[in-house]
Amino acid sequence: MLYAFHEMQRMAIAPMRMVTDGLTQMLDNPMNPFRDSLLARQFASAMSVFEQVTRTYGKPAWRLESTEIDGETVKVHEEVVIHRTYCHLVHFRREAERDDPKLLIVAPMSGHFATLLRGTVEAMLPDHEVYVTDWQDCRLIPITADRFNLADYIDYVVDFLHFLGPNTHVIAVCQPSVPVMGAISVMSMWGDLCAPASTTLIGGPIDTRRNPTAVNKLALEHSIDWFEEKVIQVVPPPYPGMMRKVYPGFIQLTNFVSMNLDRHMESLGALFEHLVQGDEEAAQRKKEFYDEYLAVMDLPAEFYLQTVKTVFQEHLLPKGEMIFRWHAIEPQRINRTALMCVEGELDDICGVGQTKAALDLTPSLNSDKKHYLLQEGAGHYGVFNGGKWRRDIAPKIKAFIREHDHELQARHWAAKRGPSDKRGTDRRSGTADRRRSDRRARAKS
Predict the structure, then answer these.
(1) Which of 220, 273, 369, 377 has minimal Cβ neighbours within 10 Å of its Cβ?
(2) How many helices (H) and strands (E) does the chain have?
(3) Of 53-57, 206-210, 228-232, which range is least confident?
(4) Which DSSP symbol is given to 390?
(5) Mean pLDDT over residues 86-93, rounded?
């Protein structure tokens, strides 16, 4: 009923939006003699803010058409290389012949579209061959499609790593930290050659018992039955996914906004002032942020409920009790994949220490393959977007990836040894050549 009521409310506001749109066009008309008056600017600005917060947002575009490499502008092409029901794997192909590390960025499936990581992708593009998990809006997926849960999420990560091949690097932002750790643990147990060379976890809820936030406390205050009854809704018509049970994106957005309501009210007030004063550049930055922030997607009910129970209520991963299909997930099996954990000092979604717990869960991993970064003054959004991300965090992650890239290491040592040393160390290959020569000589005789 809540989803249907939300849709009714959206349709009820539609006439008001049409009126404000007409008034805005009238006020902005060059023939209007009061166009530049303070009162007209205030009215136009107020209606612009109203339009911004009441708009129905679809999936935003990536808008990554180029990047800068070595001071030159290089075109970028967005290509879907794998189509799956719940997720597409997107490759940002650069028009440049470079031998850069492969990077899989696993976007969160937590209400926002993968484009929320536009700044993350943009920062990594100049130095990496970037692939991103592009999760699909569940209200657009017919109920006849397969269901999707936490184990399926791990399956997707494993499959994408198999597609990309050995020596791939992974960045998991927030929610996917747990399934990515699960995927790496299982692949390490298999001795899988496609297990990533390095993995960076950014603001992820590995162990929410550490320094719990308001979000973590909410998950513990209610039973899983309460979540199923209160927040799980049925998609109404006319969406393709009608009758499917989902965790609606508008509920997740409401929770996010309510956590920082004062900050958002101040931000929208600042947007109003920028519009009144004609500060178009500052106003555009605010609008672009809310264009992304207010665009939300629905999640599969079974995935959401299993995540709440497994990660936030029962803490199965840090307790060593998490199961994937028929395999126990054992992070202590990870012994080759270098691991970096990044946290924000002011993160109110994932508290300090929750992501760092991954380093304690991997005793088989040498200390030189572990790295931790606590970014001062950064909140949850700031650890993967914004100025601190670009200036302070991204360069450290790039250095970490290059330090543990197997191909770069091989080229480095080959260059350091030199041609004569390289021939001397390739003993097995030289022995095989001699044996082949001996066999040919015996055959001739």
Answers:
(1) 377
(2) 16, 14
(3) 53-57
(4) I
(5) 97
